[in-house]
Amino acid sequence: MNKANNQSKKIVLTGITPSGTPHIGNYIGAIKPALEMAKNPEFDAYFFIADYHSLIKLWDSKLRQQYIYEIAATWLALGLDPEHVMFYRQSDIPEIMELNWILTSVTAKGLLNRAHAYKAAVDANIAEGEKDEEAGITMGLFNYPMLMAADIIMFNADLVPVGKDQIQHIEIARDIANRLNHIYKCNLLKAPEAMVDKETQTIPGLDGRKMSKSYNNTIQLFAPSKQLRKQVMKIVTNSQLPEEPKDTTECTVFALYKHFANESEVEALAERYQQGIGWGEAKQTLFEKMDELLMPMREKYDYLLANKHIIDEYLAKGAHKARVEAKQLLDKLKQQIGM
Ligand code: ADP
Ligand code: TRP
Prior knowledge:
Helix content is 55%, strand content 7%. By secondary structure, it is mainly alpha-helical.
């Protein structure tokens, strides 16, 4: 799997921050499309757990540990094959941190001043009338896109499948790679491209807004059946009576159903909407479909979480393989910059 800089296959790389229990939005919007790309023989896939990124959002050690295992178990339960995919934990690859510093040293501060998460934090302070507009903003939050750039550049990634909110970060990584190449007159670092799937970029949550743990509107991916049903029943619908014909286009239940059911099942539900369907029945249909599809993966997920040593072994092997490649690029880069 050694490709540093002379690979024939394109490299697809993405990471997930372990800062919450995986939800349906993470699955449909990020993990499922990434795993589909990994099956494509034109790509080599690198999927990792961005645990250093979680330090910025989460300061609870026990929860972090739990989320790291949950994200790892999720990737594996959904079909990631660690024999074919480079699967590792960011903090197991210290080379990323070294690269991070080298990249930091050529990056204009202004580039990160314009990053949207930082700007949003400043704007929120201003809106709240804070005297210090930087109040509560850590250097971690400010440097977040920097570390992402190191994650991506470390493995010569060509394509980075991400949600819409992350596109700017990939553009920042591109700028940084090009800048270092320019400064040190080399062509060592690959400039990555973001890949966003229009169909799955915004999976709606319980209240119809984007499903996100920040909005507290998620449906947990591997909640036990009973809990899954409870969550599905909480989806906000309008106050139309059961017999009234219903619009499928603005309906969260229908939007979610489309991602789980096949074409003819989707058509059949659309017809029921046309004829008039009670919201309870629509939600029950969605729940049953989701439960049926998720059940085998949920069993695998529960098994892995009950047997964490299996996850540990996969991650240790993945780290070992990934470090070999990371070291190669870092050695070349250090040589190039005169170290
Ligand atoms: P959250 O918004 O719940 O904090 P994250 O930011 O941790 O989720 O997202 C992890 C991955 O899942 C990212 O690639 C993100 O784009 C994707 N993702 C999260 N929520 C959704 C959603 N509702 N629709 C599509 N993709 C999503
Ligand atoms: N910032 C991403 C998120 O919150 C996670 C992430 C970290 C990532 N490093 C990355 C994604 C590198 C793609 C590539 O979703």
